[in-house]
Amino acid sequence: MSETDRPSPPVVRLARCPICAKAASEAFRPFCSKRCADVDLNRWLGGGYAIPAAEEPDPESEEIPDLRDDP
Ligand SMILES: [Zn+2]
User: Fold this and answer.
1) What's the 6 CA to ligand 1 centre distance in angstroms?
2) pTM of whole model > 0.70?
3) Of 39, 30, 38, 71, which is closest to residue 57 (Cα–Cα)?
4) Which CATH architecture has domain 14-47?
5) How far is the centre of ligand 1, averaged over its atoms, from the C-alpha of 11 (Å)?
6) What's the CA-to-centroid distance between 23 and ligand 1, angstroms?
7) CA dist list (Å): 70 to 3, 38, 42, 46, 64
8) Is there a contact between 32 and 60 (Cβ–Cβ < 8 Å)?
9) What is the C-alpha to C-alpha distance for residues 24 and 32, in angstroms, rounded to an integer?
10) How far apart are CA 58 and CA 5, in angstroms?
11) What is the pLDDT along the chain (71 residues), one digit of tens a residue?
12) CA 8 to ligand 1 centroid distance, Å
């Protein structure tokens, strides 16, 4: 009897939110929330993917600057 070919356990892999590095949510992946999804979208719509001030968002901080640009 060999146990070398036993099936691997199911692995639930959730990516991390690229915005705040929290665990991504199933509903908003790869982001953790709609807000982070919006932030990412606004970056693209803004034409630049550069972050002016903070290079690495603090994982503990959920403070997202208001990037909305209402006409
Ligand atoms: Zn996030």
Assistant:
1) 36
2) no
3) 39
4) 2-Layer Sandwich (3.30)
5) 22
6) 8
7) 61, 14, 11, 12, 17
8) no
9) 4
10) 42
11) 666 777 766 655 668 999 999 999 989 989 999 999 999 988 888 865 555 555 566 666 666 667 777 77
12) 30
CA angle 16, 22, 23 (to 5 degrees): 55
Q: Which run of H or of E encompasses 59?
A: none
The tokens describing 53, both together, are 């001030």
Q: What phi and psi values does residue 23 have, to the nearest 5 degrees?
A: -65, 135
For residue 59, the model assigns a pLDDT of: 64
What's the pLDDT at 63? 63
Sketch the domain layout of the chain as residue ranges: 14-47
